[in-house]
Amino acid sequence: ERLEGLAEADREALLLPMDLLVAHLPAVELDEELSILATRGSPLLVADAPGQGWVRLYGRVTGFLGLGEVLGDGRVGPRRMLRNPL
To answer: Is the pTM value of this prediction over 0.70?
Structure first.
């Protein structure tokens, strides 16, 4: 109730971005086509992805999309997606 009573600018100042919790993971930016594929769960061939581990996935337009995992063949598999903005 307290948050709802605040102006939008004041709310934004109090709330932290969701991806802050995983800020230690490398970030991978996706173009529009790859963003669509990621939201559908398709493994992605991303040129600048790290060689292994988990990554944060960002759409150029939509922002933080969720988490992916680098697969054995070098593609990035979407694992924990937040939304389907497209």
So the answer is: yes
